[in-house]
Design a protein that fits this description.
Layout lengths: L2 E6 L7 H9 L4 E4 L8 E5 L2 E5 L12 E4 L4 E2 L1 H13 L9 E4 L3 E2 L2 H14 L11 H9 L12 H21 L7 H15 L3 E2 L1 H10 L4 E4 L24 H7 L6 E7 L2 E3 L12 H9 L12 E3 L1 E2 H11 L3 E5 L9 E10 L2 E3 L6 H6 L1 E8 L16 H14 L3 E5 L7 E3 L7
The chain binds inosinic acid (IMP).
The site of inosinic acid has 21 residues, from helix 4.
């Protein structure tokens, strides 16, 4: 298989960054196709920690091409902050290894401001967004008033686009008691970064077709997780993009065969509000948070923690067409006597083998657990399947059997090479 799609199958933070970086060794090109700098991908290479938000996770590997596709909402100021940090650490980023879709929509300062303002107004009903302007930027995209990265190439056209955008936003801001924005102020803000952004801007659709004709290996890097998908996630507590397989084709402008690889964490976490049937608000959740360092990469918020929900993962495997899985952070469960796996729900006296889409039902869902014995020994850094204790192998097999697809890889620490590979996804 020349092309591979890597998706998070829970609520994000499954450890996709490490997996994409690991697989990038075999890929020529890595493409982001949705989301924006709400993502937080952590790579640990020889004890050096790299935190990426917008840049594809191959950027630290020399000789790889990183593409930010049209489905991404791009904050140019955040992008250059990330580029500057990496440049200071000796990573070279230029149009030779980074291309940005000319039809990617921009996140402007007004989007982040609106995101935060609306969240404040919601009080107890807030979504718990990252406050990065993701939702408002996607709203402008479907409202057909967004500014594309390619619009910066012609200043007269850019002025028209700003005028059109502000006629909407200033009316909205007036209603929300926010100060109005002057056209020339926004124009100057944007033109200040134009000279830095435009060298990277190109038709990434053409570029991808070129790589496809050359039979290069292309890796599509999902951000957030399947349960934050705007259609299939726990709506309205979701992000504003599609995070599932279909988005690869529209968000990158690519069509071709690709193997889908789902990344799952050995337990479950979630940041922000919304249903989470297997959440543990007591000592178990707290222990997972401490051992797993479950604090948001982007916002630093505490992640909510709980047992692995196999029912949800099975549901998403079927929706995403995942051929196999990568299990991450297995070592976090090293010290638990008993481990629970969610295998169904009881909702208002009825049993369910899937999570229904109604928020009201989701909020009432009580997990049904199957319990297995813990392995009570350290798996940290294990790279060899034969060295895993029987109880750990049993945990993996129970998940595989329930979910219905094999686990191809198992990650046992944040370090790039601490991984057990049972199947090479590129050779499927
Ligand atoms: P937004 O994407 O900033 O609009 O936030 C919407 C929801 O998605 C919130 O619950 C966020 O915490 C969550 N979210 C957004 N990006 C990520 C991510 O990369 N990892 C985990 N949760 C995320």
């Amino acid at each position: 298989m020349h092309n591979v799609v890597v998706l998070g199958l829970q609520w994000g933070d499954e450890g996709k960054g490490k997996i994409v970086d690991y697989l990038a060794n075999q890929a020529d090109v890595v493409v982001r196709f949705q989301g924006g700098h709400n993502a937080g991908h952590t790579l640990v290479i020889d004890q050096q920690v790299y935190k990426l938000s917008l840049l594809p996770s191959c950027i630290v590997r020399p000789g790889k091409m990183a593409i930010i596709g049209n489905g991404v909402v791009l904050d140019p100021w955040a992008l250059f902050k990330e580029i500057d940090t990496l440049t200071e650490r000796g990573i070279n980023i230029s149009p030779k290894n980074l291309a940005i879709a000319d039809n990617a929509c921009l996140i402007l300062p007004l989007h982040a401001e609106l995101d935060r303002h609306r969240e404040e107004l919601q009080g107890g009903n807030k979504i718990g967004t990252t406050g990065r302007g993701i939702g408002p930027a996607y709203e402008d995209k479907v409202g057909r008033r967004a500014i594309h990265a390619g619009d910066l190439l012609q200043s007269d056209f850019l002025k028209q686009r700003i005028n059109n955008l502000l006629s909407h936003h200033n009316a909205l801001r007036q209603g929300l008691n926010m100060p109005l924005i002057e056209e020339n102020v926004l124009f100057n803000q944007i033109t200040d970064i134009t000279h830095r952004l435009t060298p990277f801007v190109t038709s990434t659709v053409q570029l991808l077709q070129h790589y496809q004709q050359q039979k290069r290996h292309i890796l599509f890097e999902g951000a957030q997780g399947a349960l934050l998908d705007i259609d299939h996630g726990t709506y309205p507590y979701v992000t504003s993009s599609n995070t599932l397989t279909g988005q690869v084709f529209s968000g990158a402008g690519f069509y071709g065969p690709a193997a889908v690889l789902g990344v799952i964490k050995a337990y479950t976490t979630r940041v922000g509000q919304g249903p989470f049937p297997t959440e543990d608000l007591g000592d178990i959740g707290q222990k997972m948070r401490e051992i797993g360092h479950e604090f948001g990469t982007v916002t630093g918020r505490k992640r909510r923690c709980g047992w692995f929900d196999a029912t949800l993962v099975r549901q998403i495997v079927r929706l995403s067409g995942a051929k196999g899985l990568v299990l991450t952070k297995l070592d976090v469960l090293d010290d638990f006597d008993k481990i629970n796996i969610g295998v169904g729900y009881e909702i208002l006296g009825k049993s369910y083998d899937y999570l229904p889409s109604s928020l009201q039902l989701q909020q009432q869902a009580k997990p049904i657990y199957r319990q297995v014995t813990g392995w009570k020994s350290s798996l940290k850094g294990c790279r060899d399947w034969s060295k895993l204790p029987t109880a750990a192998k049993n945990y993996i097999q129970v998940i595989e059997e329930f979910v219905g697809v094999p686990i191809f890889m198992i990650s046992t620490s944040p370090e790039r090479e601490d991984i057990i590979v049972r199947q090479n996804v590129f050779s499927l």
